[in-house]
Design goal:
- It contains five helices and eleven strands.
- With 206 residues, the protein is an alpha+beta fold.
- It has a five-stranded antiparallel β-sheet with strand order 2-3-6-4-5, sandwiched between helices. Strands 9-10-8-11 form a four-stranded antiparallel β-sheet, with helices on one face. Strands 1-7 form a two-stranded antiparallel ribbon.
- The relative contact order is 0.16.
- About 2% of the residues have low confidence.
Protein backbone atom coordinates (compact mmCIF):
# COMPACT_ATOMS: atom_id res chain seq x y z
CA UNK A 1 0.00 0.00 0.00
CA UNK A 2 1.20 3.50 -0.80
CA UNK A 3 1.61 5.82 2.17
CA UNK A 4 0.37 8.73 0.02
CA UNK A 5 3.25 10.92 1.18
CA UNK A 6 5.31 13.38 -0.82
CA UNK A 7 9.08 13.52 -0.19
CA UNK A 8 8.43 16.32 2.33
CA UNK A 9 6.00 14.15 4.27
CA UNK A 10 2.82 15.83 3.04
CA UNK A 11 -0.23 13.84 1.98
CA UNK A 12 -1.48 14.10 -1.61
CA UNK A 13 -5.18 14.16 -2.41
CA UNK A 14 -7.51 15.49 -5.13
CA UNK A 15 -8.05 19.20 -5.68
CA UNK A 16 -11.37 18.75 -7.50
CA UNK A 17 -13.79 16.14 -8.76
CA UNK A 18 -12.25 13.93 -11.45
CA UNK A 19 -14.03 11.76 -14.00
CA UNK A 20 -13.28 9.49 -16.94
CA UNK A 21 -15.76 7.87 -19.33
CA UNK A 22 -14.59 4.81 -21.30
CA UNK A 23 -16.16 2.01 -23.30
CA UNK A 24 -14.79 -1.52 -22.98
CA UNK A 25 -16.37 -4.32 -25.07
CA UNK A 26 -19.66 -2.45 -25.35
CA UNK A 27 -19.90 -1.76 -21.61
CA UNK A 28 -19.65 1.87 -20.51
CA UNK A 29 -17.51 2.58 -17.45
CA UNK A 30 -17.76 6.00 -15.79
CA UNK A 31 -15.04 6.54 -13.18
CA UNK A 32 -15.47 9.43 -10.73
CA UNK A 33 -13.34 10.44 -7.76
CA UNK A 34 -13.20 13.23 -5.20
CA UNK A 35 -11.52 14.17 -1.95
CA UNK A 36 -13.27 13.07 1.25
CA UNK A 37 -12.24 13.63 4.86
CA UNK A 38 -14.43 11.09 6.67
CA UNK A 39 -16.53 8.01 5.97
CA UNK A 40 -19.88 9.81 6.22
CA UNK A 41 -18.73 12.35 3.62
CA UNK A 42 -17.58 9.57 1.30
CA UNK A 43 -20.83 7.61 1.59
CA UNK A 44 -22.96 10.73 1.09
CA UNK A 45 -21.08 11.55 -2.12
CA UNK A 46 -21.43 7.97 -3.34
CA UNK A 47 -25.20 8.11 -2.77
CA UNK A 48 -25.34 11.36 -4.72
CA UNK A 49 -23.39 10.30 -7.82
CA UNK A 50 -24.27 6.60 -8.16
CA UNK A 51 -26.80 5.81 -10.88
CA UNK A 52 -29.58 3.51 -9.60
CA UNK A 53 -30.44 2.59 -13.20
CA UNK A 54 -26.90 1.43 -14.02
CA UNK A 55 -25.86 -2.23 -13.87
CA UNK A 56 -23.27 -1.67 -11.12
CA UNK A 57 -21.88 1.16 -8.97
CA UNK A 58 -18.62 -0.20 -7.54
CA UNK A 59 -16.56 1.93 -5.19
CA UNK A 60 -13.77 2.28 -2.67
CA UNK A 61 -12.32 4.91 -0.39
CA UNK A 62 -9.07 5.42 1.50
CA UNK A 63 -8.98 7.90 4.43
CA UNK A 64 -5.78 7.50 6.41
CA UNK A 65 -5.91 4.01 7.90
CA UNK A 66 -9.61 3.63 7.10
CA UNK A 67 -10.73 2.01 3.87
CA UNK A 68 -13.77 0.28 2.42
CA UNK A 69 -14.70 -1.15 -0.96
CA UNK A 70 -17.81 -2.63 -2.54
CA UNK A 71 -18.24 -4.85 -5.62
CA UNK A 72 -21.98 -4.05 -5.96
CA UNK A 73 -22.87 -7.37 -7.52
CA UNK A 74 -19.75 -7.95 -9.60
CA UNK A 75 -17.73 -11.12 -8.83
CA UNK A 76 -15.91 -10.85 -5.49
CA UNK A 77 -12.59 -9.04 -5.75
CA UNK A 78 -13.14 -7.92 -9.34
CA UNK A 79 -14.20 -4.30 -8.78
CA UNK A 80 -14.01 -2.68 -5.35
CA UNK A 81 -10.58 -3.95 -4.41
CA UNK A 82 -9.00 -2.97 -7.78
CA UNK A 83 -10.49 0.52 -7.33
CA UNK A 84 -8.88 0.76 -3.88
CA UNK A 85 -5.59 -0.52 -5.31
CA UNK A 86 -5.72 2.19 -7.98
CA UNK A 87 -6.16 4.92 -5.35
CA UNK A 88 -3.23 3.57 -3.36
CA UNK A 89 -1.18 2.98 -6.49
CA UNK A 90 -1.44 6.66 -7.40
CA UNK A 91 -0.13 7.59 -3.94
CA UNK A 92 -3.35 9.36 -2.90
CA UNK A 93 -5.22 9.57 0.39
CA UNK A 94 -8.55 11.05 1.51
CA UNK A 95 -10.07 9.91 -1.78
CA UNK A 96 -13.30 8.11 -2.69
CA UNK A 97 -13.85 6.69 -6.18
CA UNK A 98 -16.82 5.05 -7.87
CA UNK A 99 -17.08 3.30 -11.23
CA UNK A 100 -20.57 3.11 -12.69
CA UNK A 101 -21.02 0.37 -15.29
CA UNK A 102 -23.71 0.02 -17.91
CA UNK A 103 -23.51 -3.56 -19.20
CA UNK A 104 -23.18 -3.85 -22.96
CA UNK A 105 -23.87 -7.54 -23.46
CA UNK A 106 -20.30 -8.89 -23.56
CA UNK A 107 -18.92 -10.62 -20.46
CA UNK A 108 -15.40 -9.53 -19.51
CA UNK A 109 -14.45 -12.28 -17.07
CA UNK A 110 -12.92 -11.60 -13.68
CA UNK A 111 -9.55 -10.60 -15.12
CA UNK A 112 -11.18 -8.25 -17.58
CA UNK A 113 -13.27 -6.68 -14.83
CA UNK A 114 -10.21 -6.13 -12.65
CA UNK A 115 -8.48 -4.35 -15.52
CA UNK A 116 -11.58 -2.34 -16.41
CA UNK A 117 -12.39 -1.12 -12.90
CA UNK A 118 -8.83 -0.67 -11.67
CA UNK A 119 -7.58 0.73 -14.95
CA UNK A 120 -10.35 3.28 -15.40
CA UNK A 121 -9.81 4.67 -11.89
CA UNK A 122 -6.02 4.71 -12.29
CA UNK A 123 -6.34 6.65 -15.56
CA UNK A 124 -8.93 8.98 -14.01
CA UNK A 125 -6.63 9.77 -11.08
CA UNK A 126 -3.57 10.22 -13.30
CA UNK A 127 -5.38 12.98 -15.17
CA UNK A 128 -6.85 14.57 -12.03
CA UNK A 129 -5.69 17.80 -10.45
CA UNK A 130 -3.92 16.96 -7.20
CA UNK A 131 -3.07 18.99 -4.13
CA UNK A 132 -1.26 18.62 -0.81
CA UNK A 133 -3.43 17.87 2.20
CA UNK A 134 -2.22 20.07 5.05
CA UNK A 135 -1.96 18.17 8.31
CA UNK A 136 -4.26 19.31 11.11
CA UNK A 137 -3.45 19.27 14.81
CA UNK A 138 -5.96 18.00 17.38
CA UNK A 139 -6.65 20.54 20.13
CA UNK A 140 -8.78 20.86 23.25
CA UNK A 141 -10.15 24.38 23.87
CA UNK A 142 -11.98 25.40 27.04
CA UNK A 143 -13.67 28.80 27.38
CA UNK A 144 -16.71 30.56 28.78
CA UNK A 145 -20.12 29.98 27.17
CA UNK A 146 -20.37 33.50 25.75
CA UNK A 147 -17.34 32.93 23.49
CA UNK A 148 -18.80 29.95 21.63
CA UNK A 149 -20.18 31.85 18.58
CA UNK A 150 -16.96 33.85 18.14
CA UNK A 151 -14.80 30.78 18.62
CA UNK A 152 -16.77 28.76 16.07
CA UNK A 153 -16.36 31.59 13.58
CA UNK A 154 -12.63 31.84 14.26
CA UNK A 155 -12.07 28.11 13.77
CA UNK A 156 -13.94 28.27 10.47
CA UNK A 157 -11.84 31.23 9.30
CA UNK A 158 -8.68 29.23 10.07
CA UNK A 159 -9.95 26.24 8.02
CA UNK A 160 -10.35 24.19 11.17
CA UNK A 161 -12.90 21.49 12.06
CA UNK A 162 -14.91 21.00 15.24
CA UNK A 163 -15.01 17.30 16.17
CA UNK A 164 -16.93 17.55 19.44
CA UNK A 165 -18.49 20.07 21.84
CA UNK A 166 -19.32 19.52 25.49
CA UNK A 167 -20.90 21.82 28.05
CA UNK A 168 -19.95 21.85 31.72
CA UNK A 169 -20.78 23.91 34.76
CA UNK A 170 -17.75 26.15 34.22
CA UNK A 171 -17.90 26.62 30.43
CA UNK A 172 -17.63 24.92 27.07
CA UNK A 173 -15.00 22.51 25.77
CA UNK A 174 -14.38 22.02 22.05
CA UNK A 175 -12.34 19.29 20.42
CA UNK A 176 -11.01 20.85 17.21
CA UNK A 177 -8.59 20.20 14.36
CA UNK A 178 -6.65 23.17 13.00
CA UNK A 179 -4.03 23.29 10.21
CA UNK A 180 -0.57 23.34 11.77
CA UNK A 181 0.40 26.68 10.13
CA UNK A 182 -2.60 28.31 11.85
CA UNK A 183 -1.76 27.27 15.42
CA UNK A 184 -0.02 30.52 16.36
CA UNK A 185 -2.86 32.63 14.95
CA UNK A 186 -5.42 30.58 16.86
CA UNK A 187 -3.50 30.94 20.12
CA UNK A 188 -3.08 34.70 19.75
CA UNK A 189 -6.69 35.40 18.80
CA UNK A 190 -8.00 33.07 21.49
CA UNK A 191 -5.98 34.95 24.13
CA UNK A 192 -7.28 38.28 22.85
CA UNK A 193 -10.95 37.31 22.71
CA UNK A 194 -10.91 35.62 26.12
CA UNK A 195 -8.57 38.13 27.81
CA UNK A 196 -6.27 35.22 28.58
CA UNK A 197 -8.93 33.13 30.31
CA UNK A 198 -9.40 30.40 27.69
CA UNK A 199 -7.15 27.35 27.69
CA UNK A 200 -5.75 25.57 24.63
CA UNK A 201 -4.14 22.15 24.85
CA UNK A 202 -2.58 20.07 22.07
CA UNK A 203 -3.66 16.43 22.13
CA UNK A 204 -1.08 13.87 21.14
CA UNK A 205 -2.87 11.14 19.21
CA UNK A 206 -1.12 8.04 17.99
Amino acid sequence: MSDALTPSGDIRTLAAVASLDVEIKRSRFLAQAVRCDNADEALAWLAEVSDPHATHNCWAYRIGQQYRFNDDGEPGGSAGRPILAAIEGQGLDHVVAVVTRWYGGVKLGVGGLVRAYGGSVAQCLQQAEQTVLIAKTLLDIHCEFALEPSLRQLIGQLDGDIDDVSYGSDGITLLVRVPMPQLDALGEQLRDMSRGQATLRKIDKA
